[in-house]
Known about the structure:
Blueprint (H helix, E strand, L loop, with lengths): L1 H30 L6 E6 L2 E22 L5 E6 L6 E2 L4 E5 L2 H29 L5 H27 L1 E3 L4 E3 L9 E2 L8 E16 H9 L6 H7 L4 E4 L9 E6 L9 E9 L10 E17 L4 E3 L2 E7 L5 E12 L2 E6 L6 E3 L13 E4 L2 H4 L10
Parallel strand pairs: 1-19
Antiparallel strand pairs: 1-18, 2-9, 2-13, 3-5, 3-8, 4-7, 5-6, 7-9, 9-12, 10-13, 11-12, 13-17, 14-15, 15-16, 16-17
Helix pairs in contact: 2-3
Amino acid sequence: MRLNKLYTLFALGLFFALVSCGNEQGSAPAAQQAPPAPFPVVQLQPKTVTGFKEYPTNLEGIVNSEVRAKVSGYIQKVYVDEGQKVRKGQVLFKLETQSLSQDAGAAKASVNVAQVEVDKLKPLVAKNIISPVQLETAKANLAQAQANYSSVSANIGYATIKSPVDGYVGAIKFREGSLISPADPSPLTTVSDISKVYAFFSLNESQYLDFLQNAEGKNLQEKLANYSEINLVLANGSIYSEKGKIQTSTGQINQNTGTVSLRAVFNNPNQLLTNGNSGKIQIPTVYENAIVIPQESTFEQQGNIMLYKLGEDNKVSTSIVKVKATVDNLYVIESGVDETDTIVVSGAGKLRNGMAITPQKTSFDDAIKPIAVLFKN
């Protein structure tokens, strides 16, 4: 009997020991549960940023004068070369004038004959031997001969083709020995003043309204005069060193293209720019004291741009934001967040609504700093 009691007591002790071990093993994971995952967060603050909108442009010198022949003839001499700087009145081309000289000789002879006839008739009219009408007819013939001679002489002068303006010689499309005429569709060359260049570009109706609304002034002239200086992006992607100024606008919508044409001017002291250059106009827009967020902090869902706000108990919630503009790696926000909000800077793809996180505070300047590109193609 006593032995049975000992067995019973041993069995109960073993049972309670096993139960105690099981409870300890079950409670260990709960005691060692990991904290919420860390995510960088930042409190928003207003910032002034400048965004640029780009528009294709074509460049021309402020003066582009086509050089054309006024008379037909063979080019006898070309005195300049392409790209050469010339002055107004400088000789560019010389045409062969042999046939014109012969015509001038014949016209001069006709003038002499007509003059002799007038001189012969004057005393006869004075003595009433002939009618004054005959003298007037002779004088008319003399005037006509003189006009013909002047015309031929002018044509000889036109055979020396001079530059109409100060500037630089463009492509020379005809060389010595070429037969040219005033009816040729192409000019001999173009002389351009490129000390300044015009940049022509167009805005659609919506862009033009935005442009006007961002400019100060009561009318179009004041708005253009007060508008900020603009940049020119060259064909190689570099920014031209000189700032430009918008000078004119047609102010009317082209019914065929739906656009408004504008013209800007850039100084060109080193003649880096020339006729036919292309590029892009950069028009600045300043957003003062705007709420900006890094694009990295957002994600897109069903066409909406969203981010995660940090709320009570370090739990995150989604918020839809309305974007006013994009400036580099930032969104300029119109609505959805304000400067009192704290948002998750990155890792939105790993979050879900209502999830608790361990916030890691980041400075605002670090949060909006562009990410450096380590590799380029």
